[in-house]
Amino acid sequence: MYTLLDIGNTRTRIAIADGGPIEVVKILPTTDLTVAALAGYAPIFAACVVPVAKAKLQGLPITYLTAQNAGSLIDFTQVDTSTLGADRVANCLAALDDLLPSMVIDCGTAITLEVIDVNKVFRGGAILPGRQLMRQALHDHTGALPLIALSPGLPPVGVDTASSIAFGIDAGIAGMVRELIRRTETEFGCRFTLLGAGGDIDFLRQSMPEIQKTPIDFTLRGLLKFAQTFAG
């Protein structure tokens, strides 16, 4: 049995894998993650993108996923892995179960793209702020722009300040992702299987239905693949 720990910028998922489906047993804000919250869980394999959270768990027997210790599953030698996030590594591993070449589009606090070629080589990708982060940045760094809620659907052209922010950010993000996909496919001269993950992927798929929605445990599946390989 493995304990899987997906430590994200906003929330952390604690899951158990014992040969059957991955079971998420607890979801908590990453700021609330403590040694006590992990009492009784072992062995633990973690994907962590929050250094402060990792420091709080110092001393626990946790094996952290990195590009270096996942190199037997995917070739990461074509990129600088010194700052490559463990969540992106886990997404790459999970993508091995789908048709290659593939591109993972993970929509959360940040939006990340991971590109894996037909030979299981990680070729790089992109990082941009997510919808909520863009909204927060506009509010925090201007004198009068409001913090607006996420729009469930595709917003029309704005007719006031709030709706203009929604249209600018949401249509803008959809356009950015579409252009990133186009430029990547042009650069590599092929079409990619587009795999969508993360809590905000449904929004993006409204304008890009060609993105396949992955299971909710997609990143955890990549982490489990690492745990099984690492543990032998």
- Cα-based radius of gyration, to the nearest Å: 18 Å
Specify the number of helices: 6
Q: What is the helix fraction of residues, given as a range?
A: 25-40%
What is the third-level CATH name, the topology of the domain at 98-216?
A: Nucleotidyltransferase, domain 5
**Looking at the structure, what is the overall shape?**
globular
Any idea what the CATH superfamily of the domain at 98-216 is called?
ATPase, nucleotide binding domain
Distance between the termini: 13 Å
Q: What portion of residues belong to β-strands?
A: 15-25%
**Total number of strands:** 10
CATH class of the domain at 98-216: Alpha Beta
Mean pLDDT: 94
Can you summarize this structure?
The protein contains six helices and ten strands.
Task: Report on the architecture of this protein.
- The structure is a single chain.
- By secondary structure, the protein is of the alpha/beta class.
- The protein has a domain of 119 residues: Nucleotidyltransferase, domain 5, CATH 3.30.420.40.
- Helix content is 32%, strand content 24%.
- It is built from 6 helices and 10 strands.
- Strands 3-2-1-4-5 form a 5-stranded mixed sheet. The protein has a 5-stranded mixed sheet with strand order 8-7-6-9-10, with helices on both faces.
- A hairpin with a 5-residue loop joins β2 and β3.
- α2 packs across α6.
- The two termini are 13 Å apart.
- The model has no long low-confidence stretch (mean pLDDT 94).
Give the arrangement of secondary structure elements:
Elements: E1 2-7, E2 11-17, E3 23-29, E4 44-48, H1 51-56, E5 62-64, H2 86-95, E6 102-107, E7 110-116, E8 122-129, H3 131-140, H4 161-188, E9 193-197, H5 201-207, E10 212-213, H6 218-231
Parallel strand pairs: 1-4, 4-5, 6-9, 9-10
Antiparallel strand pairs: 1-2, 2-3, 6-7, 7-8
Helix pairs in contact: 2-6
